[in-house]
Amino acid sequence: MPHRKVGFGLHSIGAAVVNGVWRLGYASRFFLMTLISSGASFRRIQLTIREIYFSGVMSLIIILVSGLFVGMVLGLQGYETLQKYGSESALGSLVALSLVRELGPVLAALLFASRAGSAITAEIGLMKATEQIAAMEMMAVDPISRVVAPRFWAGVISMPLLAAMFSAIGVFGGYLVGVVFIGVDEGSFWSQMQAAVDFRQDIVNGVIKSVVFGIAVTAIALFEGYDAPPTAEGVSHATTRTVVTSALAVLGLDFILTVLMFRGV
Amino acid sequence: MLRIKEQIPVPAENLVEISDLNFTYGKRPILKGINMKIPRGKLVAIMGLSGCGKTTTLRLIGGALKATTGSVKVAGNEVGGLDKEALYKMRRKMGMLFQFGALFTDLSVYENVAFQMREHTDLPETVIRDLVMMKLHAVGLRGAHKLMPSELSGGMARRVALARAIALDPMLMMYDEPFAGLDPISLSVIGNLIRHLNDALGATSIIVTHDIQESLKIVDYVYFMADGVVVAEGSAEDIKASKLPFVHQFVWGEIDGPVSFHYPSPPYRKDLLLESAHAA
Lengths: 265, 280
Fold this sequence. Notes:
The complex is a heterodimer of chains A (265) and B (280).
Chain A: H1 2-36, H2 39-43, H3 45-55, H4 60-82, H5 91-129, H6 132-138, H7 143-182, H8 186-196, H9 199-227, H10 232-262
Chain B: E1 14-25, E2 28-39, E3 43-48, H1 54-61, E4 69-74, E5 77-78, H2 84-91, E6 94-97, H3 109-120, H4 125-138, H5 154-165, E7 172-176, H6 184-201, E8 204-209, H7 212-218, E9 221-226, E10 229-234, H8 236-240, H9 245-252, H10 268-271, H11 274-279
Parallel strand pairs in B: 3-8, 3-9, 6-7, 7-8
Antiparallel strand pairs in B: 1-2, 1-4, 4-5, 9-10
């Protein structure tokens, strides 16, 4: 019965589209509710600071170690390419621009999604599974305001700081390999970097990118946790979805932002 | 519905009134025309098999679900008609003990009990400390105030959750399967605490449970539910003496009866292929 199979296929596609649109609407409403319920995150700032510790400070090790290695690889690969054209002195600007414009915000966001995003989803998913969220509601405490919003703002605040640290330690990694180990001239390394990096064009745009990534990754992590079915399997799937969706969102947003920021430069 | 006793013994004033309540999940009916009255100061149990709708009834009283049709009134307020602010205001006068405690795992025992006080009051820290210690003393766990939930046994966690639920001296306490998974000593402790706290606080309590022996020792009145309807009601003595086949089977834990041991299935001989073999 081929027509029955076609009908079944169309039905499945239709159901998936309806489900997708419904979920997108629910996620948008959830995001809006988070913004509306954000007052307590600033009135009781200790709630947000606590989450900055768990999301930001606890992610420092992975961010710093990764940033150092990325900077060292950039220094090595950059030197290999630049020396062919006798431009080793431009190594500083290559490392700095690569990190500040692209690699810092993007890689820090991907690492943040893996380390903090997955933890947020698992924590909220388990709070739901163990009825902690329901208990909070029964105690007349709004979980969006008490649990979700402080984590959201903690992510938004932490992300640009982590990206900045990733870039800074990456520049140091490039310096270590380029100047200390290979022997590129130290003065030209730093002076070329200083001349090439523009505060408005490079650093501010890099910060804007990392703020947007912070919003995207944290919102996805919170929604997936809050929407997770209250079972071990449900939380596991939600955590996986957080990492996958966040990674795709960061890469997609990076392309859009790069087009908007650097088109014609 | 077959009533064992027509009237609740002391119908002074009802804190909770449920009338012609229907509730459906999608197209599946869960509750079908429930009527209940919970008088002030009384301890009332809602009993029945798993999936009969008793937890759903509790969630409707707490405003976590909205009735499809019918009415749920708490202290004269129609719960389904309350907006979020009014619902939260009403919930501040309610306490709920969840099946496995639902303690906040990132907070200590002390912080769990202090949670509502910090959220809803501006009490100074010294007063909060005294109140928390009093609540923990009431459940016998004052000495455990520094422990984390992961360091507690199941019975202790349930007692801490009980202390947290009574933190703001609620007018209505709701217990969702408070005896599930407890050892006999913890079971007795929790049972006695529920009765004692209800009387000491002057509260009204609703227990959803299928632990018949423990709950019949402490409750004033029982509603029996099956398949979304109230099939019997009465005092603990009425329920014990009931001749209704379902109630009798439930109370005395009989293996077979109106609730069949076997899931509906075709004839046994047919499944063993004996009938077709015999025919051949």
